[in-house]
Write a structure and sequence with these properties.
Blueprint: H1 2-23, H2 25-68, H3 75-84, H4 90-100, H5 107-120, H6 125-139, H7 145-156, H8 163-176, H9 180-191, H10 198-211
Helix pairs in contact: 2-3, 3-4, 4-5, 5-6, 6-7, 7-8, 8-9, 9-10
């Protein structure tokens, strides 16, 4: 008797499953097609991004090799094109290369390239903070107080690993301007910053003891 009931239950369950698929055949087919299309779209997009990154890599490496061999005719334009592609890896490298080799003299042009990376490129948080710090460092000799504070505010108001670097830059900036009270304030902030760079803490303490102890 129990075996008969079990067989009936199994047959009933199987029939329900069969009926479900028959009655919902079109929606199920649509779902399957949608899943396949999503998968294909994702795969195609990934292939496209990989191909684009490979092209950027080749452009970056070729430009550097040509520059090292004495032919820098296309270097700046190539690096600017790479920056404008907003790639999280090669765009920062391209800007660093331009800066390290002093290949663009126009500061406004350099700042525009910085802004592409900071505002328009999908970067990891600390990579973006590093680029913000580099922008402030690049402009420190010519920018006014409001300008350098505006650049560095995103870092000094955060818990970034670059916070102590930003504070040190501000402290030295104000010291160079003869504004010792403001300089001392930022040096002291370094000493009270969690996870501050130890070398920067030592330099800040030296500066406070040697030049700002009054």
């Amino acid at each position: 008797m129990d075996e008969d009931l079990a067989i009936i239950d199994r047959d009933t369950r199987n029939q329900k499953i069969k009926d479900f698929f028959i009655n919902n055949k079109k929606p199920l087919i649509s779902i399957c097609i949608t899943i396949i299309l999503i998968f294909l779209s994702f795969y195609t997009y990934k292939m496209y991004k990989d191909n684009q990154r490979e092209k950027l890599s080749n452009k970056y490496n070729s430009a550097i090799i040509m520059h090292q061999n004495g032919d820098g005719t296309i270097l700046v334009s190539s690096m600017k094109e790479i920056i404008e592609k907003k790639d999280p890896s090669y765009s920062p490298l391209a800007l660093y290369y331009l800066l390290d080799n002093n290949l663009i003299s126009n500061k406004d042009e350099i700042n525009d390239l910085f802004n592409i990376l900071i505002n328009k490129t999908s970067l990891e948080k600390e990579i973006r903070n590093l680029i913000i710090y580099k922008k402030a460092l690049f402009n420190a000799d010519t920018i006014n107080e409001n300008g350098i504070l505006e650049i560095l505010n995103p870092i000094i108001n955060s818990s970034s690993v670059w916070k102590s670097h930003a504070l040190y830059l501000l402290a030295e900036y104000f010291y160079s301007k003869g504004e010792k009270l403001k300089s001392k304030e930022f040096f002291n902030q370094i000493l009270n910053t969690e996870n501050a760079n130890l070398d920067i803490v030592k330099e800040a303490q030296k500066r406070l003891n040697r030049d700002l102890s009054e």
